[in-house]
Amino acid sequence: MRYDDDRDDDEQDPFIRDRLEEIYADQDDTPLPEPDDEPGQDLVPPAEPEMAMALPEEGLEEPVLTGAAAAAAARRQDAARKRIERAARRRQGVPDTRTVDSAVAWALARVLREAGVPELVRRAGTVEGLTVELAPILRYAMEALRARGVPSEMRRTVIAGKLLPGPTRRAG
Fold this sequence. Notes:
This protein is mostly helical. It is 52% helix and 0% strand.
């Protein structure tokens, strides 16, 4: 049994009736009344200075942004700043972080495959106690960056910064 089965079909729920009346009222397209100004009357600014309208100052303030607009503006500023930083890094010959990360990942994957690690892990069922030589990873990562045209000194710097973080450097 539905909750409205005991009502007559002609009777409408009062809540729904009120909402429909509001909707119909909002859809009212009656024209606005005409202004009271006479067509021949000139609009004359007030003669008294305190009654005159204040003109905007020369240095206008920036408009207040909504939360979404402010967030979008901040993202645009960050994107512009990062574009400038990336361009400066390219001019200095510094590869982007993705290039270095992909070179290191490729080098690590190659060393693991060459050492037969996938088969060892399948047989042992764990990676516990697994050790990998660092020298081949460094060598292969250097090769990958050389293939991408990164200068020798820069290759050493970025690979060392990525794999051998010192006390003042951090990985990543």
